[in-house]
Amino acid sequence: MTAEPTSRGRVWFEIFAQGGTVVPSGAASVLVADAPLPDAPLPDAPLPDAPLPDAPLPDAPLTGTTARVLAVVPDPHNPFPRARGGEVGLLEGWTLARHVRAAIDADTADETEPPGPRRPLLAIVDVTSQAYGRREEMLGIHLACAAAADAYAAARLAGHPVIALLVGKAMSGAFLAHGYQANRILALDAPGVVVHAMGPEAAARVTRRTVDDLHRLVEANLPMAYDIRSYRKLGFLHALLDGIDADAPTPAQVSRVRSAVAQAIDDARRGPRDLSNRLASPEAMHARAASLEVRRRLAEQWDER
Amino acid sequence: MTARERARAVLDEGSFRELLGPFDRLESPWLPRQGIVPQSDDGVVIARGTFDGDRAVVAAIESAFQGGSMGEVSATKIACALDLARRDCNAGNTVRPILFLESGGVRLQEANLGLGAIAEIHAALVALRRLTPVVGVIAGPVGCFGGMSLAAALCTTLIVTREARLGMNGPEVIEQEAGITELDAADRRLVWSLIGGAQRHATGFADVLVDDHLPDVGRALREAFARGTPPRHRSADVDRYLARLHDLARTADGDAVASLTPDDLRAAWPREHTDDR
Hints:
The complex is a heterodimer of chains A (305) and B (277). Chain A has 305 residues and is an alpha/beta fold.
């Protein structure tokens, strides 16, 4: 047996799977575990207003809620060769959907009175892209990715806190499938943590520019930026966690990230089940002013005056 | 036909009322900064009206503007229209949503804002289609790609023409990323045999194949709304699709489905299997 290729997705999956049970997923590229998370802050404990980690959170014990943790990782033996590098392909999309829906079904079937809180879902996001291939298209990779997005959205609507933790790449259709339907998105402020619609090399080719030209353009256009600090300014992030080694975190760093996840779960439980919080952030007021204007005026015009 | 003409034509005569139309001048704030002339509707037409006498909303993407790409404004117009339709449906005032999905996907000039707003379209679709069927139409040759192909996959019913294409990655992108041996994007016959409307219909990724002829589209829409919401949407049909994929992976050792042809797939995944979902 050769060693599994390392990836940030696997590193952080193993961190969050500690003390839990690994669930056989049916695909080597999709990791699933049910694992304990620290208790969320007590309901009457004040929640930090400032983005983490400026406001340190108390270290919580590793008991309490059991969360379902999901990650997509490289699999050099993937039966679909275009999805061997950590891409979200056919098997990955449908397998994520299966295990997200299994968590929804398990809590739906729980007939204890009163019903317990729905288990949190934690998507560890390190996805390089969707799989690019002829067979992927023929076999409906668009539907496979939609199935994963559908499952996460259904979980959110059913009341599961869905948290995405960005530890590496969160690219395009792969992020739409795995993470972008979360109630709360957290990201590590570390090199290599990237959100984008298309990698710079491909984007340069498609727009017929050099990569250097593209980077100059990107600097002047916030939505085109690749780095996570620029992405934060768009208002989609719940928290950006700095001072974390994304490849080899120290125990203290792990503890901080765990606490941030617990806080986000608690915050999600108190908030609406839609994505409206992404437009309510101070950053969105500025960067997404046009989105807010569209929503305001479309609502005004909806019913004939 | 332009998106506006399609929206007007599909609604009952005289009922078309455009929201955030050209005179509202809600255009992309990002394109001018990159030297690109914006359009006053940002390439999306939202219209209220009636369809067969029922309250309806149409969102139609104009593929002639920036390839039907989704920027902050255009994608948010669609997401918000779907959210408002859901609000009305929840209040007991059913609104029939009709989407014309001609889109190259995210507009690269507005990359992360387009992507984020497309995620909001997906969220809105999943929430709305429980209350009313959401019907998507892909008619023209531009096709439906990128994040909007996921939106098409989330529709309750998908209507396509033979000229239509539906795929996640455009052929040119696949050729660039994976090489011409993976896909020759200039080979139109090959491309349409893989992702064209007839193949998508035959293999169950689309529900109705029509000519791009208004009465036919109208009839297909009427039937889709009459069928109501299914017990399980295609994108939630997890066990069926996983079983199919694992079957393929088992039979093709090492390199799954290396030799699978579009005709093979028609035999393996015939559309009648999707009718009883």
